[in-house]
Amino acid sequence: MQALNSLNRYAPQALALLRIATALIFIAHGTQKLFGFPAPPASGLPAAFTLFWFGAILEAFGGLLILIGLWTRPVAFILSGEMAYAYWMFHAPRNVYPLLNNGDAAILYCFVFFYLVFAGAGAWALDNRSK
């Protein structure tokens, strides 16, 4: 048990890896909807200033802020809300079970971002720069 407790000193780095990996994958959802990269969405690119377009802006640019660890807590709060909204408005009405409504990623993003609201950015973040 002592050996496992010694891992606590790496918690800030582990949190940073969670933040960075989550952000990189999340950014791809936004760039797909905004620019058709890495592949255009099946439904096509959203029209400017629609709900889906604003979601894509949040995903791409909010994801970038999470990636670099800038304003992590407030941005994570907004993104957590976006993912909760996405789940309840677009996934849950299809089916009760996340596996069947393709909402499991939205739920995971929601709770990872919600965790970042409370845990902060971890190591390697611009939020940690001295003032």
UniProtKB/TrEMBL annotation:
Transmembrane stretches, start-end: 46-68, 75-93, 105-126
Domain of life: Bacteria
Pfam families per the UniProt record, alphabetical: DoxX
Keyword set, alphabetical order: Cell membrane, Membrane, Transmembrane, Transmembrane helix
Membrane-topology annotation of the record: Multi-pass membrane protein
Entry keyword annotation includes Magnesium: no
Record's GO cellular component terms: plasma membrane
Nucleotidyltransferase in keyword set: no
Location(s) in or outside the cell: Cell membrane
PANTHER family: BLL4328 PROTEIN, OXIDOREDUCTASE CATD-RELATED
Family: Belongs to the DoxX family.
Protein name: Putative oxidoreductase
Species annotation: Bosea lupini
